[in-house]
C-alpha cells in the first residue's frame, strides 16, 4: 500500500502530502474526502459486527473482470497502468476489497427493503433521456435558445458548437438517462411536466448557464439496474445518518 510519508512521485515530479491536503482544502474538496474516509470506517465496523468478509477469490474474480473491462491482458500492461494511476497492486486490491465489502453490507442490510422503498418512491425513479448544453453567459444561452426555437439550428448542432464541456460537444450534448431524484426539484418538476423534444431553460447551474432537452421519458420500472440504484441510494442515506450520529455522539 502506498503510504505518503515521502513525496508522491508524479512522473518524476515530487509532490508532498501537505501540498495535496492544502490543494483539497483550497478547492473545497477536503470535506467530501473526509466524509468518504469516515463512511469506510462505518462500513468496516458494521461489516465486522455482521460477520461479513471478502475472500481473496472474490477479489481476484473482480480484479480479472476489471482488467477485461479496461482491456489489460499482459502483466506488463497492468504494471504500467497501475504506475500511471500512482498506485501499487496492494492499493488496487484494497480498493476492490472495500467496494465489494460495501456491496455485501448494502445487500445484507437493505436487500429485502428495496421493493418497498421503490414502490413508495416510484416517481423519483422516473427517468428522462437528456441532452444538455452549458454556456458561460446568460446572454449566449438566450441567443442559442432563440436560434433553436426559430429552427435556425438544432439542439444537437448547438451543443456541438457551443457547449463548454468537450465530451458533450463530441456527443452533441448527450448526458444520458437521469433519474428524477438526481435533478434539482424545480428543474425536475419542469422537465417531467413537459414533453419530449421540448427545450428547458436557460437556468443557472454549477457548470454555467444551461439548456436541457428531453429526448425520451422512461417510466419507473424495478429491473436489475434500478434495483441496484435503489439499493445504493438507501445505503448512501444510511451512511449519511450513521455519520451524522457519529459526529454528534462524539460531541456529547
Spatially, the strands of the biggest sheet line up as: 4-3-6-5
Described by the principal axes of the CA atoms, the overall outline is globular
Number of strands: 6
Biggest sheet record: 4 strands, antiparallel
Regions with pLDDT < 50 over 5+ consecutive residues? none
Q: Please give the alpha-carbon distance between the first and last residues.
A: 35 Å
Overall number of structural domains: 2
**Tally the helices: what do you get?**
11
What string, H for helix and E for strand, traces the elements in order? EEHHHHHHEHHHEHEEH
Q: Radius of gyration, rounded?
A: 22 Å
The structural class is: alpha+beta
Assess the beta-strand content as a share of residues: 5-15%
Mean pLDDT: 93
Explain this structure to me?
- This protein has 252 residues and is an alpha+beta fold.
- It has 2 domains: 38-122 and 222-252, no CATH class; 127-218, Chitinase A, domain 3.
- Helix content is 57%, strand content 15%.
- It has helices spanning 17-26, 30-50, 56-69, 75-84, 89-110, 114-120, 138-149, 155-162, 166-170, 185-192, 224-249; strands at residues 8-10, 13-15, 127-135, 174-179, 199-204, 209-218.
- The strands form 2 sheets. It has a 4-stranded antiparallel sheet, with helices on both faces. It has a two-stranded antiparallel ribbon with strand order 1-2.
- It is globular, with a radius of gyration of 22 Å.
- The two termini are 35 Å apart.
- The model has no long low-confidence stretch (mean pLDDT 93).
Amino acid at each position: 500500500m502506498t503510504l505518503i510519508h515521502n513525496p508522491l512521485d508524479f512522473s518524476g515530479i515530487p509532490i508532498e502530502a501537505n501540498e495535496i491536503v492544502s490543494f483539497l482544502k483550497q478547492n473545497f474538496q477536503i470535506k467530501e474526502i473526509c466524509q468518504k474516509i469516515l463512511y469506510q470506517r462505518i462500513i468496516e465496523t458494521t461489516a465486522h459486527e455482521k460477520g461479513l468478509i471478502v475472500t481473496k477469490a472474490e477479489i481476484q474474480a473482480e480484479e480479472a473482470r476489471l482488467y477485461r473491462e479496461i482491456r489489460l491482458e499482459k502483466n506488463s500492461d497492468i504494471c504500467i497502468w497501475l504506475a500511471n494511476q500512482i498506485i501499487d497492486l496492494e492499493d488496487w486490491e484494497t480498493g476492490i476489497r472495500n467496494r465489494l465489502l460495501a456491496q455485501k453490507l448494502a445487500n445484507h442490510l437493505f436487500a429485502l427493503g428495496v421493493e418497498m422503498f421503490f414502490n413508495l418512491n416510484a416517481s423519483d425513479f422516473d427517468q428522462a433521456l437528456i441532452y444538455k448544453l452549458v454556456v458561460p453567459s446568460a446572454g449566449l444561452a438566450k441567443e442559442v435558445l432563440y436560434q433553436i426555437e426559430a429552427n435556425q439550428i438544432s439542439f444537437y448542432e448547438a451543443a456541438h458548437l457551443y457547449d463548454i464541456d468537450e465530451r458533450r460537444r463530441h456527443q452533441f450534448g448527450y448526458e444520458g438517462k437521469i433519474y428524477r431524484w438526481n435533478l434539482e426539484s424545480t428543474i425536475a418538476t419542469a422537465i417531467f411536466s413537459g414533453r419530449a423534444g421540448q427545450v428547458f431553460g436557460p437556468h443557472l447551474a454549477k457548470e454555467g448557464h444551461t439548456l436541457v432537452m428531453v429526448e425520451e421519458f422512461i417510466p419507473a420500472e424495478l429491473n436489475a439496474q434500478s434495483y441496484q440504484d435503489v439499493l445504493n441510494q438507501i445505503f448512501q442515506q444510511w451512511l449519511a445518518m450513521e455519520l451524522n450520529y457519529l459526529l454528534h455522539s462524539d460531541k456529547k
